[in-house]
């Protein structure tokens, strides 16, 4: 059996390439790649060893290769958003980067061949390609829907064509594909592909809307959420969201360990950012930290 | 090789490195990165009587060399903790310092009593987190009032086997920390943990609103280390025989050494674990080397050392 669980390694940047609005970063991270399953993420330390930025930055794994030319590599797709991601985007080959991974609970794969629709919003498409490989290896049908604000924020349209039955593209501004949201096109894709499961990664608002469409069409949804994380490894409790368990009880659940992948209908989307009053342990008496 | 053994009251530890409450959960996640038995102690997340959901998100904001958190003591409640976590920690060979919290004196007493019922040997010490608002007294934080702090410590002390040392965890957000320290020791604390987070606030300049759902939060990380060193220094000067578990902004062995030289008999690594999950064992190694380089044969000889040279040179 392949080794499992996260490790911490001193990695190295092999390359940073611009792809549209994003950066494709390849990291040498010995020992991480062979543990990766689709949906896992890595948490990277940013700014160097004495950086004043203490919290790790989390990124979905786009590709993991056990045996690259230099050894095991992990690839991510990042949007330079704030100081940590900008630092990463500015890294040069051979710069050291401390890598913790693989982290999180990966996508659940169907036992029998099924029809699977994969939906990515912006850089959220990154983890879908390795997922598509795993699904196809199980004999599943794969259709892909990619959405973004504009053409330069789409990632992997060509990749997607190679690995799927069909690719549908949406942009908010109509610069490529259908003008509008991924949820506009989903019912048609579900009907055409006779979709059993939809897998999605992207902004929270997209995941919420998609979970609703999936539920309305009787399609199971597996969604990878993105909540602000401080540690990524499950010790700080910053990354929680309200999730209904199999027992019907809502709990504030860590998205870094119990997630980032959840069943779409288990997340209480309307209550994200709050503690619902019927949640286990709520309402809280004032204060404490 | 430096002899790293130390003690916190009657708790004898093979070395002075511990995790900090709330920064290591209950050990399982960190045990994937190093064996917990290598640490002097694991300090667990503060546990209260009932399960708690904690506060709404966002619960954290990164700040220069630190962070703010307003987790709100999310946890499973003391019964689940005693049933599931303590035996697991014991099986790992960890020495466990159980952090307890309460919103009332009675809650401190009941939680301590439940912890006291745990299998013998599974609790090395109990840390009483008094940084909770006192629901019986206008939400005033226990740690900010000597009477309330003493009452909470006394409630825990009475409920526990005298063989289990009690550490009172102090807040730096007070006018005179020595007064609070004295009150806690007077109430039966065998030692003190210093410091808890410093109350802070961040405003999001994009939304023009507080960054945390809880508005204010606790500041931690290297940004607060000088505050920790100062608090430890002041209390050790006033109460030199009371053991101190130093906490606050430790990132390296030299940071830990500062707390030790100020008077800490052991040191916890908190927020820096988020940056480096193996920080506790790394800091231990670095602390060992730093002591060796400075000619210390025993760790305990370094405890409070800065006071000694200060008195000799300036007395
Ligand atoms: C599971 C997961 C997978 C992700 N995958 C990708 C990816 O593939 N590509 C990509 O570009 N981004 C991804 N993100 C988002 C990325 O982690 C944040 O954009 C990044 O942490 C922001 O850091 P910063 O220093 O630029 O911004 P700042 O806003 O300065 O960050 C400050 C702190 O807040 C945290 N934070 C801020 N925004 C987010 C966020 N959206 N999600 C999580 N933490 C946040 C940071 O980690 C840091 O601790 C992912 C997030 C998660 C949780
Ligand atoms: C996310 C987080 C949660 C915390 N939870 C607790 C807690 O439950 N009980 C407690 O006594 N201290 C808690 N603390 C405070 C730490 O134990 C420690 O006193 C403080 O963070 C200073 O140390 P540091 O700078 O090394 O983090 C918490 C700190 C953080 C950052
Ligand atoms: S990010 Fe720390 S518990 Fe999830």
TrEMBL record, chain A:
FAD binds at residues 57-60, 84-85. GO terms for biological process: pyrimidine nucleotide biosynthetic process. It comes from the Bacteria. The keyword DNA repair does not apply. Keywords: 2Fe-2S, Electron transport, FAD, Flavoprotein, Iron, Iron-sulfur, Metal-binding, Transport. SUPFAM superfamilies: Ferredoxin reductase-like, C-terminal NADP-linked domain (SSF52343), Riboflavin synthase domain-like (SSF63380). Residues 6-109 form the FAD-binding FR-type domain. GO terms for molecular function: 2 iron, 2 sulfur cluster binding; flavin adenine dinucleotide binding; metal ion binding; oxidoreductase activity. The keyword Magnesium does not apply. It holds the Pfam family NAD_binding_1. [2Fe-2S] cluster binds at residues 231, 236, 239, 256. Its cofactor is [2Fe-2S] cluster; FAD. Transmembrane segments: none annotated. Binds 1 [2Fe-2S] cluster per subunit. Binds 1 FAD per subunit. Belongs to the PyrK family. This is Dihydroorotate dehydrogenase electron transfer subunit. It comes from Motilibacter peucedani.
TrEMBL record, chain B:
The active site is at 132 (nucleophile). It is an enzyme of class 1 (oxidoreductase). GO terms for biological process: 'de novo' pyrimidine nucleobase biosynthetic process; 'de novo' UMP biosynthetic process. FMN binds at residues 21, 45-46, 129, 169, 195, 221, 248-249, 270-271. Its EC number is 1.3.-.-. GO terms for molecular function: dihydroorotate dehydrogenase activity. InterPro entries: Aldolase_TIM (IPR013785), DHO_dehydrogenase (IPR050074), DHOD_1B (IPR033888), Dihydroorotate_DH_1 (IPR024920), Dihydroorotate_DH_1_2 (IPR012135), Dihydroorotate_DH_cat (IPR005720), Dihydroorotate_DH_CS (IPR001295), Dihydroorotate_DH_I (IPR049622). Substrate binds at residues 45, 69-73, 129, 196-197. It comes from Motilibacter peucedani. The keyword Oxidoreductase applies. Keywords: Cytoplasm, Flavoprotein, FMN, Oxidoreductase, Pyrimidine biosynthesis. This is Dihydroorotate dehydrogenase. It comes from the Bacteria. Pfam families: DHO_dh. The gene is pyrD. It catalyses: (S)-dihydroorotate + A = orotate + AH2.
């Amino acid at each position: 059996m392949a080794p499992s669980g996260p490790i911490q390694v001193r990695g190295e940047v092999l390359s940073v390439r611009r792809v549209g609005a994003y950066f494709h970063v390849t990291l040498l991270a010995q020992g991480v790649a062979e543990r990766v399953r689709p949906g896992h993420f890595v948490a990277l330390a940013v700014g160097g060893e004495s950086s004043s930025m203490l919290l790790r930055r989390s990124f979905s794994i786009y590709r993991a290769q056990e045996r690259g030319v230099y050894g095991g590599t992990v690839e991510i797709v990042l949007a330079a958003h704030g100081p940590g991601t900008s630092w990463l985007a500015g890294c040069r080959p051979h710069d050291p980067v401390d890598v913790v991974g693989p982290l999180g609970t990966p996508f659940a794969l169907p036992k029998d061949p099924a029809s699977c629709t994969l939906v990515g919003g912006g850089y959220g498409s990154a983890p879908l390609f390795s997922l598509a490989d795993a699904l196809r290896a199980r004999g599943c049908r794969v259709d892909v829907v990619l959405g973004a604000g504009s053409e330069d924020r789409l990632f992997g349209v060509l990749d997607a064509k190679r690995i799927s039955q069909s690719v549908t593209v949406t942009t908010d501004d109509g610069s490529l594909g259908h003008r509008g949201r991924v949820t506009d096109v989903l019912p048609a894709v579900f009907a055409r592909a006779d979709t059993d499961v939809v897998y999605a990664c992207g902004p929270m608002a997209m995941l919420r809307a998609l979970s609703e469409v999936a539920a309305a069409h009787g399609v199971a949804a597996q969604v990878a959420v993105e909540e602000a994380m401080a540690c990524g490894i499950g010790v700080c409790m910053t990354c929680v969201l309200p999730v209904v368990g199999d027992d019907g009880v809502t709990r504030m659940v860590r998205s870094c360990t119990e997630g980032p992948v959840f069943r779409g209908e288990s997340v209480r989307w309307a209550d994200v950012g709050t503690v619902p009053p019927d949640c286990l342990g709520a309402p809280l008496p004032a204060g404490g930290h | 090789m430096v002899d790293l053994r130390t003690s916190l009251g009657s708790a004898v530890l093979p070395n002075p490195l511990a995790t900090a409450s709330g920064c290591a959960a209950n050990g399982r996640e960190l045990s994937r990165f190093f064996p917990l038995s290598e640490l002097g102690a694991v300090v667990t997340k503060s546990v209260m009587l009932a399960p708690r959901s904690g506060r709404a998100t966002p619960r954290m904001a990164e700040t220069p060399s630190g962070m703010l958190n307003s987790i709100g003591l999310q946890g499973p409640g003391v019964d689940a903790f005693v049933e599931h976590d303590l035996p697991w920690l014991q099986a790992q060979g960890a020495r466990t310092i159980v952090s307890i919290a309460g919103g009332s004196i009675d809650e401190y007493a009941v939680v301590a009593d439940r912890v006291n019922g745990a299998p013998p040997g599974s609790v090395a010490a109990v840390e009483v987190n008094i940084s909770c608002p006192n629901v019986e007294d206008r939400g005033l934080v226990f740690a900010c009032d000597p009477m309330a702090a003493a009452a909470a410590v006394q409630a825990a002390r009475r409920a526990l086997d005298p063989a289990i040392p009690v550490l009172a965890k102090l807040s730096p957000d007070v006018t005179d920390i020595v007064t609070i320290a004295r009150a806690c020791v007077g109430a039966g604390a065998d030692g003190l943990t210093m410091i808890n987070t410093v109350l802070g606030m961040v405003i999001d300049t994009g939304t023009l609103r507080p960054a945390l759902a809880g508005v204010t939060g606790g500041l931690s990380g290297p940004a607060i280390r000088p505050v920790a060193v100062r608090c430890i220094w002041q209390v050790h000067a006033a109460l030199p025989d009371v053991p101190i578990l130093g906490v606050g902004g430790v990132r390296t062995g030299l940071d830990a050494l500062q707390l030790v030289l100020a008077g800490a008999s052991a040191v916890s690594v908190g927020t820096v674990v988020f940056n480096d999950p193996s920080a506790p064992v790394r800091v231990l190694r670095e602390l060992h080397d730093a002591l060796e380089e400075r000619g210390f044969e025993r760790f305990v000889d370094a405890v409070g050392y800065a006071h000694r040279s200060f008195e000799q040179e300036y007395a």
